[in-house]
Automatic annotation (TrEMBL), chain A:
Keywords: Amino-acid transport, ATP-binding, Nucleotide-binding, Transport. It comes from Desulfatitalea alkaliphila. GO terms for molecular function: ATP binding; ATP hydrolysis activity; branched-chain amino acid transmembrane transporter activity. CDD domains: ABC_TM1139_LivF_branched (cd03224). InterPro entries: AAA+_ATPase (IPR003593), ABC_branched_ATPase_LivF/BraG (IPR030660), ABC_transporter-like_ATP-bd (IPR003439), ABC_transporter-like_CS (IPR017871), BCAA_Transport_ATP-bd_LivF (IPR052156), P-loop_NTPase (IPR027417). The keyword NAD does not apply. One of its GO terms (biological process) is L-amino acid transport. Belongs to the ABC transporter superfamily. It comes from the Bacteria. Residues 9-244 form the ABC transporter domain. The keyword Amino-acid biosynthesis does not apply. This is ABC transporter ATP-binding protein.
From TrEMBL, chain B:
The chain crosses the membrane at residues 12-35, 55-85, 97-120, 147-165, 195-218, 271-295. It comes from Desulfatitalea alkaliphila. One of its GO terms (molecular function) is transmembrane transporter activity. It is found in: Cell membrane. One of its GO terms (cellular component) is plasma membrane. Keywords: Amino-acid transport, Cell membrane, Membrane, Transmembrane, Transmembrane helix, Transport. Pfam families: BPD_transp_2 (PF02653). It is a multi-pass membrane protein. This is Branched-chain amino acid ABC transporter permease. The keyword DNA-binding does not apply. Coiled coil: none annotated.
Length: 245, 300
């Protein structure tokens, strides 16, 4: 199969919400392989709903999601992971009562089922190299980690599945500025390593800095999109999201 | 037979209590496995025990299968029954809430009981003890060998479960489901499969309890509900969801029942468990080892 210009992830006219509440209306976006794409927007703009629809945690009511040439709109979440799309959920969602090592082990759950021992061992080595602090705390109960360490664990766990596309939902939420810098450095590292990332962030400045392309979501609709650098210079974005002007 | 001293009697009650407590512990463990993954109390848990006993009687006594083969076949059959319970009564529920699922298990328990009555009738059945009925005399104590089988199987079940939950990826995946159901799905765990597995394992443990119990206490179609209540009381006493708690709760309940029946009023044997259940619910609803906060955080 030739890899033409078709995006790795294509979201077409997606509408989704919770029960009677529609949180996103007719959103379309594309993520090209190898890029970091950011979605910025205020609280309640529908960013998380959008990611949850992609990862299968929340069903879309209308529209299509195509990942790697395959429609995944109605697939179950665990099936979507097996296709190479992993999500780091908002609020980290680690297994708080289990050890750090078990959390990481479970990230490779699918490889365990497929008895791909080598992929698991390689994955462990890679994430422990990337996050040495997790290696140090491998035996610790995950819920006792600091917020930043928990975020690293959540990312490490997602990476264990060797995703083609990584969804990151508010990775900087509730973290101290220094830790936030670490997290974004991690994102840059992953980007450099060739991982495709769809990033949802309230921290627009950092999100635009690491991204190749970005979308601005307002009350459930895409109001602006473009190369990240261009958006960072957009007077409207500057005023509303970067606090300049 | 010579008369027993009080000490001997007290020890005798203890052995009986440990035995019956082991049965309650196994039922309580069954409750916990399903509860941890689904938050549902499977009120048909006692029927697994009943079915284990009666199917064993049919295979071993009526069909003459050797003990080990009949044991394995019985556990396998009840395991399938447990999986069918999930597939036919739990999964098809359209808008599953914990309450509607619990009610589905109540309905299932009635159906199991009715079917058992049709198949086996209303009479209690006996099963030969695994290693004969010759009691073991130990320092003035009279211990039925079957008691040791019951306690031994409880220990075996506990050890196997500990290995399963701590050493195997499937066991860890089940723990992950009870820890954080959404996150479990995000790492690719099929939570419905885990629920099915929980029902299978719970049913298997119930069958073991029923098979080992029958040579001591006989078995009939109507025993499930009371066993479920006792096991539930044990699970609550120990702390719902906690495995060490289930064992502790089961043993304590067995001892209370044994001493209560032996020293106080034997007619109230079944009431002791209910009194304990009520006291725990009034005084310490989280049980001995349970943390209510931990229990509340479980969502699938």
């Amino acid at each position: 199969m030739s890899k033409t210009a078709a995006p790795l992830l294509a979201i077409e006219q997606l509408t989704a919400g919770y029960g009677p509440i529609t949180a996103i209306k007719g959103v379309s976006l594309a993520v090209t392989a190898g890029q970091v794409v950011s979605i910025i927007g205020a609280n309640g703009a529908g960013k998380t709903t959008l990611l949850k629809a992609v990862s299968g945690m929340n069903r879309a009511t209308r529209g299509r999601i195509v990942f790697n040439g395959r429609e995944i709109t109605r697939l179950a979440a665990d099936r979507i992971v097996s296709l190479g799309l992993s999500q780091v959920a908002e609020g980290r969602q680690i297994f708080a009562h289990m050890s750090v090592a078990d959390n990481i082990e479970l990230g490779a759950y699918l490889f365990h089922r497929q008895r791909k021992r080598q992929l698991i061992d390689e994955g462990k080595e890679a994430v422990y190299t990337m996050f040495p602090v997790l290696a140090k705390r491998a035996g610790q109960i995950a819920g006792t980690l600091s917020g930043g360490e928990q975020q690293m664990l959540a990312i490490a766990r997602a990476l264990m599945a060797r995703p083609t596309l990584l969804l990151l939902d508010e990775p900087s939420m509730g973290l101290a500025p220094l830790i936030v810098r670490d997290i974004f450095r991690t994102i840059e590292q992953l980007h450099a390593g060739g991982t495709t990332i769809l990033l949802v962030e309230q921290n627009a400045r950092a999100a635009l800095q690491v991204a190749d392309y970005a979308y601005v979501l307002e009350t459930g609709r895409v109001v602006l999109e473009g190369p990240a650098r261009q958006l960072a210079d957009d007077p409207k974005v500057k005023r509303a999201y970067l606090g300049i002007g | 037979m010579e008369s027993f001293t009080l000490t001997q009697q007290l020890l005798q009650f203890m052995v009986t209590g440990l035995t019956i407590g082991s049965i309650y512990a196994m039922v309580a463990i069954g409750f916990n496995i399903i509860y941890n993954v689904t938050e549902v109390l499977n009120l048909a848990q006692g029927e697994f025990v009943m079915l284990g006993g009666l199917i064993m009687v049919s295979l071993h006594v009526a069909l003459g299968l050797p003990l080990v083969a009949a044991f394995a076949a019985t556990v396998a059959t009840v395991t399938v029954v447990g999986m069918l319970l999930d597939r036919l009564a739990i999964r098809p529920v359209r808008q599953p809430t914990v309450m509607s699922l619990i009610i589905a298990t109540v309905a299932a328990s009635m159906i199991f009981k009715g079917l058992a009555m049709l198949i086996w009738g209303k009479n209690p059945y006996d099963l030969p003890a695994f290693s004969g009925r010759e009691p073991i005399l130990l320092g003035g104590l009279v211990i039925q060998s079957q008691y040791l089988w019951v306690i031994g199987f409880m220990v075996l079940v506990t050890v196997l479960l500990a290995l399963f939950f701590n050493r195997t990826i499937l066991g860890k995946a089940m723990r992950a489901c009870s820890d954080n159901g959404a996150a479990a799905r995000l790492v690719g765990i099929n939570t419905q499969q885990m629920v099915l597995l929980a029902f299978a394992v719970s049913a298997a443990i119930g069958a073991v309890a029923g098979i080992t119990l029958t040579p001591i206490a006989l078995m009939d179609y109507d025993r499930g509900a009371m066993l479920a209540i006792k096991g539930f009381a044990a699970a609550i006493l120990g702390g719902l969801g906690s495995f060490p708690g289930a064992i502790l709760g089961g043993i304590i309940l067995g001892l209370i029942e044994s001493y209560g029946a032996g020293l106080l009023l034997s007619g109230y044997k079944d009431a002791y468990a209910l009194i304990v259940l009520l006291l725990v619910l009034f005084l310490r609803p989280s049980g001995i080892l349970g943390g209510m906060a931990a229990a509340r955080s479980k969502r699938v």
